[in-house]
Amino acid sequence: MPALKLSFDYLPFHLQQCFTYCALFPEDYRFSREELIHFWIGQDVLHSHGENKRIEDIGLSYLTELVGHGFLIKEEDEYGHTRYVIHDLLHELGLKVSAHECLAIYSSNVRSIQIPMAIRHLSINIDDSSVEDRKTFDICKEDFSALGKRLKVENLHSLMIFGKHQSSFVKIFHGLFQKAKALRVIFISGSSYRVEDLFHNFFNLVHLRYLRIQNEWGAKSQPPKSISRFYHMRVLDLQGCHNCSDLSRHMRNLLKLRHFPVPNDIVHASIYEVGQFKLLQELRRFEVRKDKIKGFELRQIGHLLELCGSLSIDNLENVEGREEADEAKLMYKRHLEELVLNWHVNRSNNDPAREDQVLEGLKPHSNLLKLCIRGHGGPNCPSWLGPNLSIMNLLSLCLDGVSWKIFPPIGELWLVNEDAEEILSNIPGQHFKKLKRIELKNLARLKRWVVGQLLSHLEVLIIEDCPELVELSFSNFSCNPILQELSIENCPKLLSLPPVPWTSARCSVRLSRVGLDLKSFTPFGSQLQLHPNSIFLSHHSSHQLQLQPGQQYFSLTPFQLQPAERSVCGTDIMIIYYPWKLLERVIRRI
């Protein structure tokens, strides 16, 4: 511990602050990056000091420094998500060095814990053992009731409550926190009650900057009935609540709001005059209302230059032209990573020329990573996605139900015109440098597609509902060396796929409702005919596979294959494709 204390003493003051506040969370708590930064924003410890930086970027740099100094450990969970955790000794250190103002109480030690007079930040953790029997539960309630005599609740700036059984103590807490008036931060984890039930005067907590309601056990809490008086609110995290849509009517005064995570994007879409929240970073969905209903015009998002993450703009058929589209100012939103542009598929006011102009005006910033365009009825690909490609760093592109004659530079696409003639849609020149995922859906005129060499980073290729598609091919074997997934569904005229090998990586292939004779493509049963450099493992095969690399045969029994679903017509197949070199290494281990 002395060595850890010495390391802590050498940290800059701003890092000491950030670290000690983290100790308010339970031991071994796994933080996400956003969770930590939002919490620090609520504690008001992130400041730009005149630098031209967002406080979120400053928070990220602090987080990186704490990891570099070893005070936070960066790890990956079972789902591949990055998490941060404090080692148990460091957690103990954090509580010790901040004991003059930070206090973590467990329901098992309420009676014995020492409480300094200057405590400003309090966390309460309800142990499961506190409710295991009636006697223990009653003792615990008595201890919490008596806590008010030792704790100056009116001085608290932060209150955090953890534990799935905390609902059993709501009435006790209501009495305990009756005089709480100065709270800036409230974090309720695992509740099934309204946050108002904790306080005698919740709506008078006008200093509140951070409110988070989280649920880890599936139950959903009710959101606050009103939030209109929280003028200083910066983080309002209601992901653990349901029925949040009514809150949007009470947000007018939350002009300092930066983060508003919610359980579904309907809440974001219902925010009236969202443009007044100029610091807002999350807006997952925006709907352009008919007849320019006041407060839902496209220009509203033009004021939100700090937007980051993903944004879906729906009902774009209600936009009248290029000038109105320009008012969205998408090209100035440099922090936006994902953009979805939606035209309603069953709209009555289809105007191809106008829709072309609208899409041209929705040019995003060059930093954009993911783009999806659905239902656009214009005849042309926008110049910023075609001849004057400006989003060359795009990682994912989805085109769904577009009616274009010219497509982005993703290879040679042959289309069928009104006279049943094939027309080449190909844009030479600039190309995507990093594209990893392509989805083509509901393209009524697509006839053939030759995936070009310039898509060497492609990992996922999905084609669905293309009724005229007859051929998919790759220009050569090396053009897609890391392809990992190929899915083709509902393309009834598809008769030709490129010969294997398609890639040097492990690749899963799904074919469903296609015209290709799958039995000729790869036989069902335990014997699979293989390319000399590859192996196909069909989920319709038995557990024992007979392989044929050249003239040699191997019998492999350890492979565990899960059966795949087959359609009524028997045209579904799921295949796993392995490079032969990879398989040879497996064979040598057997």
Automatic annotation (TrEMBL):
Any GO BP: plant-type hypersensitive response
UniProtKB keywords: Plant defense, Repeat
InterPro entries per UniProt: Disease_R_plants, LRR_dom_sf, LRR_R13L1-DRL21, WH-like_DNA-bd_sf, WHD_DRP
Pfam families, alphabetized: LRR_R13L1-DRL21 (PF25019), WHD_DRP (PF23559)
Domain named R13L1/DRL21-like LRR repeat region: residues: 298-413
Keyword set includes Phosphoprotein: no
Residue intervals of the Disease resistance protein winged helix domain: 24-93
Signal sequence bounds: none
Protein name: Uncharacterized protein
Species: Panicum virgatum
Taxon lineage: Eukaryota, Viridiplantae, Streptophyta, Embryophyta, Tracheophyta
